[in-house]
């Protein structure tokens, strides 16, 4: 029986994602950050104060792992925690001045890298890629 579709799209997507993540990981190691550390700092840099749960949802990490990462970043002086006045169960997390300064240094380099990854595509191709990936994501999330 012949298969309707090969797994080539899946494999290519996974290999591409891995290659991009490895490049970002290598760049972040120069700043003494893991890929997860950077992801947490990036969420806070772009969105401002967040709860641990909100950060975890943004970067797809469990709350147990988030606590460990937050602890490490707090010890490095890159972020701080504070109690949420409206919900005693929630903890707010924000960048410190040191964390903000680091992200101001790192983000332009990161954005240049991300732009370079997709600069071989014209605008129509980028839009098509985004639309196709959204379509696949919606199918998986049903």
Summarize the structure.
By secondary structure, the chain is mainly α.
Task: Supply the CATH architecture.
Answer: Orthogonal Bundle
Number of domains: 1
Low-confidence stretches: none
Can you tell me the CATH superfamily? Answer: Winged helix-like DNA-binding domain superfamily/Winged helix DNA-binding domain
Strand content: 5-15%
Could you give the count of β-strands? 3
Order of helices and strands: HHEHHEEHH
The number of helical runs is: 6
Side-by-side strand order of the widest sheet: 1-3-2
Tell me the helix content. 55-70%
**What is the structural class?**
mainly alpha
Mean pLDDT: 91
State the CATH class: Mainly Alpha
Global morphology = globular
The name CATH uses for the topology is Arc Repressor Mutant, subunit A
* Amino- and carboxy-terminal Cα gap: 28 Å
Radius of gyration: 18 Å
Largest sheet: 3 strands, antiparallel
């Amino acid at each position: 029986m012949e298969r309707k579709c090969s797994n080539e799209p899946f494999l290519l997507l996974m290999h591409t994602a891995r290659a991009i993540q490895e490049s970002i990981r290598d760049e972040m190691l120069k700043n003494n950050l893991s890929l997860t550390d950077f992801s947490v700092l990036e969420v806070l840099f772009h969105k401002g104060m967040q709860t641990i749960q909100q950060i975890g949802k943004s970067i797809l990490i469990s709350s147990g792992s988030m606590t460990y990462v937050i602890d490490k970043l707090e010890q490095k002086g890159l972020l701080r925690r504070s109690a949420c006045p409206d919900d005693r169960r929630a903890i707010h997390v924000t960048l410190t001045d040191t964390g903000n300064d680091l992200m101001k240094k790192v983000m332009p380099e990161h954005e240049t890298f991300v732009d370079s990854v997709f600069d071989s595509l014209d605008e129509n191709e980028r839009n098509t890629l985004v639309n196709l990936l959204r379509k696949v994501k919606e199918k998986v999330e049903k």
